[in-house]
Amino acid sequence: MEKIQTSVQTNYEKVHPTQVDHNLENIKPTATEICHLWSSYMAECMSIVFLKHMVAKSKDPSFHNVLQLALNTSSLRIESMENLFNTIQHPIPYGFGEKDVDINAPELFSEEFCVMYTRFTSKYILINYSFAFSDCTRSDFRQLFTGFIDGTKAVITTADNVLIAKGLLPKQPNIPVPEKAAFINNKGYYGSIFGANRPINAIEISNIFNIMTFKRNMRALKLGFAQVVKSEKIRDYLNRGLNIADKQLDILASFLHKEDLPGPETLDFRVTDSIDSPYSDRLMLYHVTVMIAYIAQSYGHGITNTARQDIGLAFTRLMIEIIKYVKDGVGILIENNWFEQIPQAADRQELIH
Predict the structure, then answer these.
(1) Which of 9, 10, 13, 72 has a CA between 20 and 30 Å from the CA of residue 210?
(2) Would you identify the CATH topology of the domain 28-165?
């Protein structure tokens, strides 16, 4: 096939951003802006509590620097968000605090896991703050989340540098580089639920591997929490989550193993044998429930980016199971009066009766 080379000359004109000043007193925050501010505050409160114990127990200077940077970053964010809550005259959430952590308790996770988990959660924090920036229109909200994005990038970069230096950065699968670009001319590319299927493509590998990495991290976290939690009901809930994780990891791994591709390594051995809890039951249950909900979101993203029918069907079934598990966790939080109410619309039915 003859290639036609076309030279396109592009003229670039320098554009200067236009500065438009607004009186923020006349612009009420939208529900979406409140959503991002409230959710971010709760997330950073949890982060500070976890990191305080991790920093207190860290011994390796390199690991300590990563964890201390993450703690400093979250602490500054809380101050900034409280100032913004006060500016818009919105109640500051209760969140989490000193009552939710015992820094004198023995370490529950190895330093290596603490840094890897901090890097892992920072990845999703970065995604959330990117959405927040694009969703917000008030300049003070945008300025807030712009700073948060930059801070998160610094934490991820620092963690990556340390993990690479120590040979601990999780490695993703490699695939052959194609000889040339090509088009699909067979509808069999979608595959079959029961029959033979083509090899999985790079997007599908990425989705499966990332979800498995998420589940490996959460499995280790739930394992540690199950050792130290005081409530038997929550322990049963966490153990049920471990069983779900094992089953789902096997299903996801089967797609990679058929192509002789590796999955992420287990992290369970990085949980210590401590049975003394550094965290409150409320914090552990809340964190697990919120993070597991993100796995359901990851399945949803994977469904829309998967061309093979068998993978899409598997993601759908596994997502439904995860949603049910999250709902049960929220139920336990509500039973214990631990689920802080999210800002909501006015109840018109109550107001008119």
Answers:
(1) 72
(2) Ferritin (1.20.1260)
Q: Compute the Cα dihedral for 279, 119, 134, 172 and give only its sign.
A: negative
Angle between helices 281-304 and 202-228 (to 10 degrees): 170
Structure-token match 């210590």, residue found: 272
List the domain boundaries for the chain.
28-165, 191-335
**Integer-rounded Cα radius of gyration of the chain:** 23
CB 297 within 8 A of CB 210: no
Which tokens hold the place of 153? Answer: 């990038």
Residue type, 165: A
- What is d(CA 132, CA 29) in angstroms, rounded to the nearest whole number? 13
Alpha-carbon distance of 92 to 84, in angstroms, equals 10
Q: Answer yes or no: are the C-beta atoms of 93 and 42 closer than 8 Å.
A: yes
Q: Where does residue 285 rank: exposed (0-12), middle (13-18), buried (19+ CB within 10 A)?
A: buried
pLDDT digits (tens, 9 = 90+) for 222-273: 999 999 999 999 999 999 999 999 999 999 999 999 999 999 999 999 999 9
Half-sphere exposure of 107 (CA within 13 A, CB side): 16
3-class DSSP state of 279: strand
Contacts of 183 (CB under 8 A, 6+ apart): none
63 burial level (CB within 10 Å; 0-12, 13-18, 19+): buried
Q: Residue 321 has which token pair?
A: 């199971």
Q: What is the pLDDT of residues 295-332, one digit of tens each?
A: 999 999 999 999 899 999 999 999 999 999 999 999 99
Same-fold call for 28-165 versus 191-335: yes
| Distance between CA atoms of residues 332 and 326, nearest Å | 10
Question: pTM value?
Answer: 0.89
Q: Which CATH number fits domain 191-335: 3.40.50.620, 3.40.50.450, 1.20.1260.10, 1.10.1130.10?
A: 1.20.1260.10
Q: Dihedral sign, CA of 148, 149, 153, 154?
A: negative
